[in-house]
C-alpha cells in the first residue's frame, strides 16, 4: 500500500478543498478530523453546525473546528446555488421551487459547490446509496469533455504478487453503468487505462474480459466485447488494449500464450475491464472477500470533477484514502 502513502503525500503538497456532504455521519467526522490533523485537504462539511460540534465533542475530535461548515438550511450562497441549479435543469422541467428545495439537499449542495468553483472534489456514500450520490453529480457536474460515460474503478491490492503490478490490478466498471453499449465499454476501457496511468504510474495493459478468448465462443455478448475492443483501440492507439479475453488468458502468461498467441496484453494484463456492471460488481467483491484483497474505490472516472461514492460499509480509512485520491485527481486536473 505504498502507493496510498504516495497519494496522501501528494495531496498534502497542494491542499485541495474537498466537500463531505454527510457532515454529521460518525465515520465521516472521524476521517475529517484525521485529514485536517494530517494536513491532507481543506475539509468542507455539510450539516447542522450544532450537531457537528456536539458529535465532534462526544467523539473527542479536536480538529473539526478547523473545517468549513455549510448548514444546508441556511448558508450564504443558497440563492445563488438555487438559481444555478434552476438554470442547469430548467430544460429538463425543473421549477425554481424544486431547485430551491434541492439546494437544501447536502448531496446537491456539494455538487453545486464544485460547479461554482467553491470546492475541488466530493466524497459521499457512507449513508447514501450509489444512485443518490451519483444522480446530482451526473446532472450538475456532468462528464469531462469528450467523455460520455461515467464508470467506477477499483485498485485491487491482491496477495498474488505475480499478477499486475506486484499484485495490484485496476478493474472497472464495478459501480455505475449497468449494461454498457460497445462504444461505452470502449470508453470505460480507455478511462480505466488512464486511471492506471494517473494513479499507479505504470503503462496500462488493458484486457476487455469475456467468457470467450479470441473466438472460442460465439454469442452476441462476445460480439459486443469484440466490437468494444476495436473501438477502444481506435480511441487510444497509444494504449495496449486487447479482447475478448477470459480472465485466465488475461492474467496467466502460459494460458495467454496458449489461448491468445501474439496478443500484447494476454498473460500480462494489469487493467481488467468487465463486460457489464453485474460482472464487475460481483467480481470485485468476491476477490475482496474470498481472496483477501484490499479494494480501494470506487474511483469514479469520466466525471468533469472528482466525485467519489463510498460503500455504506466503508471504514474511516476508506474515507481518508478516497479524499486523498480525489485531491490527487483535482491537482492533476488543474495542471
Ligand atoms: N455516465 C454519464 N452520464 C450518465 C450516466 C453514466 N453512466 N448514467 C446516467 N447519466 C446521466 C443521464 O444522461 C442524465 O443526464 P440528464 O438528466 O442531464 O439528461 C442523468 O445522468 C440522470 O440520468 P437518469 O437516467 O435519470 O439517472 P438514473 O436514475 O438512471 O441514475 C445512475 C443513473 C445513478 C448512475 C444509475 O444508473 C445507477 O443507479 N447505477 C447503478 C449504481 C449502483 O447501484 N452500483 C452498484 C453499487 S456501487 C458498489 O458496490 C461499489
User: What is the global morphology?
Assistant: globular
Terminal CA distance reads 26 Å
Strand content of the residues, in percent? 15-25%
**Radius of gyration, whole Å:** 21 Å
Average of the residue pLDDT scores: 95
Any idea of the CATH class of the largest domain? Alpha Beta
Q: Unreliable segments (pLDDT under 50, ≥5 consecutive)?
A: none
Q: Strand order, biggest sheet?
A: 8-7-9-6-5-10
Structural class: alpha/beta
Looking at how many chains there are and whether they match, the oligomeric state comes to single chain
Count of alpha/pi helices: 13
Domain count: the total is 2
Task: Describe, in plain words, how this protein is organized in 3D.
The chain is of the alpha/beta class and 335 residues long. It has helices at residues 2-13, 26-38, 49-59, 78-89, 96-102, 106-115, 130-141, 182-199, 220-235, 247-251, 253-259, 277-290, 316-334; strands spanning 17-20, 42-46, 68-70, 121-124, 151-157, 168-172, 205-209, 240-245, 271-273, 294-301, 307-309. It starts with a helix and ends with a helix. It binds acetyl coenzyme *A. Acetyl coenzyme *A is lined by residues 92, 130-131, 134-135, 138-139, 143, 149-150, 174-178, 281, 298, 311.
Amino acid at each position: 500500500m505504498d502507493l496510498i502513502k504516495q497519494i496522501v503525500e501528494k495531496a498534502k503538497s497542494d491542499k485541495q478543498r474537498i466537500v463531505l456532504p454527510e457532515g454529521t455521519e460518525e465515520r465521516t467526522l472521524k476521517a475529517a478530523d484525521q485529514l485536517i490533523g494530517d494536513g491532507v485537504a481543506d475539509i468542507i462539511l455539510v450539516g447542522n453546525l450544532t450537531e457537528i460540534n456536539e458529535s465532534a465533542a462526544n467523539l473527542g475530535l479536536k480538529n473539526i473546528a478547523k473545517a468549513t461548515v455549510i448548514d444546508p438550511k441556511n448558508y450564504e450562497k443558497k440563492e445563488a446555488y438555487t438559481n444555478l441549479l434552476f438554470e442547469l435543469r430548467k430544460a429538463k422541467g425543473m421549477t425554481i421551487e424544486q431547485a430551491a428545495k434541492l439546494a437544501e439537499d447536502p448531496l446537491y449542495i456539494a455538487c453545486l459547490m464544485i460547479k461554482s468553483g467553491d470546492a475541488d472534489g466530493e466524497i459521499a456514500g457512507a449513508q447514501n446509496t450509489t444512485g443518490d450520490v451519483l444522480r446530482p453529480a451526473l446532472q450538475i457536474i456532468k462528464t469531462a469533455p469528450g467523455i460520455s460515460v461515467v464508470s467506477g474503478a477499483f485498485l485491487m491490492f491482491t496477495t498474488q504478487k505475480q499478477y499486475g503490478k506486484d499484485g495490484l490490478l485496476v478493474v472497472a466498471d464495478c459501480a455505475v453503468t449497468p449494461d454498457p453499449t460497445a462504444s461505452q465499454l470502449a470508453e470505460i476501457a480507455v478511462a480505466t487505462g488512464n486511471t492506471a496511468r494517473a494513479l499507479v504510474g505504470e503503462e496500462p495493459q488493458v484486457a476487455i474480459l469475456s467468457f470467450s478468448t479470441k473466438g472460442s465462443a460465439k454469442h452476441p455478448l462476445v460480439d459486443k466485447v469484440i466490437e468494444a475492443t476495436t473501438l477502444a483501440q481506435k480511441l487510444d492507439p497509444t494504449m495496449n488494449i486487447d479482447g475478448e479475453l477470459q480472465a485466465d488468458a488475461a492474467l496467466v502468461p502460459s494460458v495467454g500464450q496458449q489461448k491468445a498467441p501474439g496478443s500484447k496484453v494476454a498473460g500480462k494484463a494489469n487493467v481488467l475491464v468487465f463486460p457489464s456492471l453485474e460482472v464487475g460488481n460481483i467480481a470485485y467483491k468476491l476477490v475482496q472477500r474470498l481472496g483477501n484483497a484490499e479494494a480501494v474505490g470506487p474511483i469514479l472516472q469520466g466525471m468533469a470533477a472528482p466525485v467519489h461514492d463510498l460503500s455504506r460499509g466503508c471504514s474511516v480509512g476508506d474515507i481518508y484514502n478516497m479524499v486523498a485520491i480525489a485531491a490527487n485527481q483535482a491537482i492533476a486536473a488543474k495542471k
